[in-house]
Design a protein that fits this description.
- Helix content is about 25%, strand content about 30%.
- With about 500 residues, the protein is of the alpha/beta class.
- A six-stranded mixed β-sheet has the order 15-18-17-16-19-20, with helices on both faces.
- Helix 2 links the parallel strand 2 and strand 3.
- Helix 1 packs across helix 2, helix 9 packs across helix 10 and helix 11 runs parallel beside helix 13.
- The longest helix has 20 residues.
- The chain is globular, with a radius of gyration of 26 Å.
């Protein structure tokens, strides 16, 4: 296909330089040619006739040509999935497929042991290079990461079958869903309109869109549906003043109705905009039982929080707002990547807040049992050598469960961090699904009117606070805790 691509542009004066001829299949007397194009630099409108004529002239086919034009989405996730799908054709390297990761839209890392590398050099790598040239617009660098054989012997990723549950009885909360069939929350992996989904509701968090002016701002709630292993991101715009966070639905099986949309730049991750919610009396999923915390810490023991500036930041003569009374834990993960479904934590940092004062610290590095991509190492400073020999996430979760028991959880963009607690916690019998959650990203537009950039550093800057070591879990968690306290006080005023 590369030679055809070159000839087409030679004859057309490079009119199709921003297209790639990815595939050709023959059937029923015609050739079906799949062409990917750069949506920003190429408009396919009215161009198919010219392209078909050029292909017929070059290929000299007896039958006709049918063009299938598709917009090329070149992201870390689409590149990762494309390479995984390609290498699965080669049995000798299939065991490395789960570790493949694109660190940018133009760079993919493939873990191999030395024997794999020798076998791949003369056949797989040249063919993969040609495949990527045909499939994507921008050149992709293939980097081989040498690992030990034992590191490739991970359990394969769980493949979820599409399941439907019969909803025999439901109690309407918002709108009216009283019965019928519902799709499992774990299987909403593409765009759907008007779908009914069943799962356990958790992480109901109040949010407000950014914008300088009330007319541009809109209140909504984010929450998760989960099936015990996978989570589904959801968004709900309150109706009739019903707030899901206050409706007693945390860790309760529900059925929802709405539309899903694939998250921009992501694969197999969608946002479900919910219109109706009903509590399921008898459905296909059940909540995990809440258990008592362990009697003592086994792996990670919290330590007292000590910082000389705390008294000046939070003056003792200030009255503690009602919203700060009680116990909160602000937490943050560093991870091997941005995929909720496919990545794992490398570091956990958390601080406990009691009645508006930071009291304790919980921190550990975590062995993700997989290589950390170079782009992540550059951002966080956490290397494979640093996490080697550290406890796994499952090993430290009982201690974190004990540390957070009875506390509300706080995060900055908590919708990224919280699913890791659900996924890994449920595997070993610890349920975080009943926790009340707060998001400083969602609080910022209310506490800091007019703020346009909602990164943690931007929020801290508006509050005259500083993050001493950004992109490390404990520093980010501490900064999130301070931002949470400061914004609660601003909102109280």
């Amino acid at each position: 296909m590369n030679e055809i691509y070159k000839k087409v542009n030679e004859l057309s004066g490079n009119k199709f330089a921003d297209c790639r001829f990815a595939d050709v299949r023959f059937g029923d007397g015609i050739a079906v040619v799949t062409v990917y194009y750069d949506g920003e630099r190429f408009d396919p409108t009215g161009r198919t006739g010219e392209l078909s004529s050029l292909l017929e002239k070059i290929c000299k086919l007896n039958g006709g040509i049918k063009l299938v034009l598709e917009k090329c989405e070149q992201t870390e996730f689409t590149v990762t999935e494309a390479v995984k799908k390609f290498v699965e054709r080669f049995p000798f390297i299939a065991g490395a497929a789960n570790g493949i990761k694109a660190t940018s839209p133009t760079r993919v890392v493939i873990p191999m042991h030395e024997g794999m590398k020798l076998l791949a050099a003369d056949d797989l790598i040249p063919r993969l290079t040609q495949y990527l040239e045909n499939r994507f617009i921008y050149p992709i660098e293939i980097k081989i990461q040498i690992v030990e054989l034992s590191e490739l012997e991970n359990k394969p990723e769980v493949k979820h079958e599409k399941k439907t549950y019969l909803i025999g009885q439901a109690e309407p909360i918002v709108g009216d869903i009283t019965g019928g069939e519902a799709l499992s929350a774990a299987c909403v992996d593409t765009n759907y309109e008007c779908i009914t989904v069943c799962g356990v509701l958790t992480m109901a968090t109040d949010m407000l869109s950014k914008g300088a002016g009330a007319s541009r701002q809109k209140r909504y709630e984010r929450f998760l549906l989960y099936d015990g292993e996978r989570t589904q991101q959801c968004r709900y715009f309150p109706n009739d003043k019903i707030a899901l966070a206050e409706s007693g639905l945390l860790n309760v099986p529900v059925v929802v109705f709405g539309n899903s949309l694939v998250e921009r730049g992501r694969v197999d991750e969608t946002m479900l905009t919910v219109k109706c919610v009903s509590k399921v009396v008898s459905g296909g999923v059940t909540a995990l039982k809440i258990v008592e915390p362990p009697s003592e810490y086994k792996v990670i023991t919290p330590r007292p929080y000590e910082e000389y500036v705390q008294t000046s930041l939070f003056s003792l003569d200030e009255k503690t707002p009602e919203t700060l009374k009680g116990t909160f834990v602000a937490f943050d993960f560093e991870t091997t990547g941005l995929s909720i479904h496919n990545d794992s934590p490398t570091e956990l940092g958390a601080v406990k807040i009691v009645d508006g004062e930071i009291t304790e610290v919980f921190h550990t590095l975590i062995d993700p049992k997989r290589p950390i991509p170079d782009v992540v190492v550059e951002k966080t400073g956490i290397t494979d050598e640093m996490v080697k020999g550290q406890p796994t996430f499952e090993e430290i979760l009982p201690d974190f469960y004990k540390f957070t028991y009875g506390a509300a959880l706080v995060g900055h963009n908590i919708a990224f961090d919280f699913p890791f607690l659900i996924k890994f916690g449920n595997r070993i019998g610890y349920c975080f699904g009943d926790r009340r959650t707060f998001d400083t990203l969602g609080m910022a537009p209310r506490a800091l009117p007019g703020i346009e950039i909602l990164t943690l550093d931007s929020v801290l800057g508006r509050l005259n606070l500083v993050n001493d070591n950004a992109h490390r879990a404990l520093s980010d968690a501490t900064a999130t805790a301070k931002a949470f306290i400061a914004m609660c006080k601003l909102l109280d005023k």
